[in-house]
Write a structure and sequence with these properties.
Structural class: mainly alpha
Distance between the termini: 12 Å
CATH topology: Amino acid/polyamine transporter I
Shape: globular
Number of domains: 1
Number of helices: 20
Strand content: under 5%
Length: about 500
């Protein structure tokens, strides 16, 4: 594969000076320390199946009713199409910036920067509310151990203040492990995942057998979803559950073989789909719809308590706590790599390219991302309950995820369009399917954004206010355009001014 040269933005007088200048200022490369198993573990930890099941199913059930299996299968199809785009782009051009680099090369640098920016900002928002989810699971676990007060303070698993403070401790600990390297993080998360999946499969299987709610094949019927708005919001929530599989492509420069990153993304995505459908059916066998929808962030805890007595009933909660902690770590790793790539292109400052002298990880960026997520988590304290915080964050992230997934899929379709003539069957996977997936997600995200706008006639700082829910993704996109303008005209980043290589390698 050809080596991509990055300009330093100087005005050399000869090709020799260009080479010398580039080599003297090019950031040091990260270490290729991850194999196939590690790639799968990072991708699976980023999607955080246990967390998505524990908090996402209740939210989604409140929208689509008893059609959770249908919406999970329906959302899987466009995401699978887009996974084909990610996998093929990564094979020919593994890059820490992943979609930021690919969209910028193929479509437009402004769109590429925006793709990278909303990805990073969305992940930071996710980390901010996952901090609260982690703290909530710790407090819930303390409650199941009959610890309900510390001194004169009553522990409340739905208090954003208490949950955030506890979760921040976990966030900083996870970030320190990430600084040590993706290999150590992957080894740690491998054991956490094994425990999570054993607990999940055991409890879900047991619930499927002993549940008292009658099974219905109508649960798999997408046409039974109450309305078009419910379908759109349910799709966004379900896509959010699958979100994260692509994080493995952000560590593509640290994986020994690009094919292992692609394989890891596909395997983790498929496993997630099976788990989500399995969990949807099991939850609906055990919990009536109202109970499922009402418990939100504590859905997995409630499910465990319905099936078992203590201490066994606490196992799903322990799994949720491990999943939330692992997803914090798995989120900071690809986000720091994305910022590293942007700093390398001088669209962001050089601090993001500073590697740890021993571990060759973007240590400064990892700690900065952690600090930003912590600050945002503190700002989110204006939303009083964890349930409301999750609802507002998930809808916002879902809309921007639909946007940057669609842009990445479009970039793949444009880049590999020559396959329509030379390899029509392959083109179905890397051109036609990604385009169809992109159209579905853009339609769903656009409709949901419009419904938020149309649902209110004034603005309130409230998670249930449509204008507030719309403001969050709008701010993500608007700040991205402002940051791009700063990078283009103030930093004079070569990312915007030079013609990048767009090889037509198949």
């Amino acid at each position: 594969m050809a080596t991509r040269a990055r300009s330093t933005g100087s005005d050399p007088t000869s090709s020799t000076s260009t080479t010398e200048s580039t080599s003297s200022t090019e950031p040091a490369a990260m270490r290729k320390s991850l194999g196939a198993t590690g790639a799968i573990v990072i991708a699976a930890s980023s999607t955080a199946a246990t967390s998505s099941i524990g908090i996402g199913l209740g939210l989604t059930a409140g929208v689509v009713g008893l059609h959770l299996p249908a919406i999970m299968l329906l959302a899987f199809l466009p995401v699978l199409c887009i996974a084909g785009a990610y996998g093929r782009l990564n094979l020919v051009d593994p890059d820490a910036g992943s979609s930021y680099r690919w969209v910028g090369q193929v479509l437009n640098p402004w769109l590429g920067f925006l793709t990278g920016w909303v990805n990073v900002v969305g992940t930071v928002v996710f980390m901010a509310y996952t901090v609260a989810v982690t703290g909530s699971s710790i407090i819930q676990l303390a409650g199941q151990a009959t610890l309900h007060r510390i001194g004169g303070l009553r522990l409340d698993p739905d208090s954003t203040l208490q949950c955030t403070l506890l979760g921040l401790v976990v966030l900083f600990a996870a970030s320190l492990v990430a600084v040590r390297g993706v290999d150590l993080a992957a080894r740690l998360q491998k054991y956490l995942l094994a425990f999570e999946y054993l607990v999940l499969i055991g409890f879900l299987g047991y619930g499927l057998v002993v549940g008292t709610q009658p099974f219905s094949w109508g649960w798999f019927d997408p046409f039974g979803i109450p309305s078009l708005h419910a379908l759109a919001q349910g799709m966004v929530l379900a896509v959010f559950c699958y979100w994260g599989f692509e994080s493995v492509f952000s560590i593509g420069e640290e994986v020994s073989d690009p094919r292992q990153a692609s394989r890891g993304g596909f395997i983790s995505l498929t496993v997630m789909m099976l788990l989500f459908v399995f969990a949807s059916v099991a939850f609906q066998r055990v919990l009536p719809l109202q109970e499922l929808a009402d418990n939100g962030a504590q859905g997995l805890t409630y499910y465990g308590n319905k099936l078992a007595h203590q201490p066994l009933a606490a196992l799903p909660l322990v799994a949720l706590m491990f999943s939330a902690a692992a997803s914090l770590q798995a989120s900071v790793i690809p986000t720091a790599r994305g910022m590293y790539a942007m700093g390398r292109d001088r669209t962001l400052g050089p601090v993001w390219t500073r590697l740890h002298p021993r571990h060759r990880t973007p240590a400064a960026g990892t700690l900065l991302i952690t600090a930003i997520a912590a600050a945002l988590a503190v700002l989110a304290l204006v939303i009083p309950t964890v349930n409301s915080l999750i609802s507002a964050a998930v809808n916002a992230i879902g809309i921007v995820v639909a946007l940057y997934y669609a842009l990445t899929a479009t970039a793949a379709a444009v880049r590999f369009r020559h396959l329509l003539r030379s390899a029509p069957l392959e083109a179905l996977r890397v051109v036609v399917a990604p385009l169809l997936g992109a159209l579905v997600l853009l339609a769903v995200g656009g409709y949901l954004a419009w419904s938020f706008y149309d649902s209110a006639d004034h603005f309130e700082l409230n998670a249930d206010n449509g204008w507030f829910e719309l403001l969050v993704p709008v701010m993500m996109i608007a700040t991205g355009l402002l940051a791009a303008a700063w990078a283009r005209w103030r930093r004079r980043s070569p990312y915007f001014t030079e013609r990048h290589s767009t090889r037509t390698t198949s």
